[in-house]
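User: Let's play a game. I give you a shape written as tokens, and you guess the letters that built it. Ready? Here's round one.
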């Protein structure tokens, strides 16, 4: 039985999580330099202490309503590493670091065919509170 730590964040009123091992740091929104001809979910690049990283609007990437609002005082940028790439992930709010057991995670078999399903590895059901991981 392996214990996991998840960084829980909010997007468009829903709770999502990322393994803490993939989150390098959590920051207030950074100044974005716009780039031409990039995907619509990449508003541009940010400079993080000399390292230039793409910033991803997680709402746009997942097809949720609205866009990330960097002026919201609860908004954060999670610097994450995934598949060897490091990028800033805009989220509405970081809620908590949650501890759970790996056995508590369930594969969302019936949603994997949906467009955003490829971004959801598992679902944590904590006494009726569903968190998409």
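Assistant: Ready! My guess for every position:
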């Amino acid at each position: 039985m392996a214990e996991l730590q998840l960084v829980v964040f909010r997007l468009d009123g829903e709770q999502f999580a990322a393994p803490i091992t993939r989150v390098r740091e959590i920051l207030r929104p950074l100044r974005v330099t716009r780039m031409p001809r990039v995907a619509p979910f990449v508003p541009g690049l940010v400079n993080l202490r000399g390292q230039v990283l793409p910033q991803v609007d997680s709402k746009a990437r997942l097809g949720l309503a609205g866009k990330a609002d960097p002026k919201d005082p609860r908004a954060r940028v999670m610097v994450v590493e995934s598949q060897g790439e490091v990028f800033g992930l805009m989220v509405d709010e970081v809620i908590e670091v949650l501890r759970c057991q790996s056995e508590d995670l369930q594969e969302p078999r019936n949603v994997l065919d949906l467009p955003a399903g490829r971004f959801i590895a598992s679902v944590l059901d904590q006494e009726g509170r569903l968190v998409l991981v």
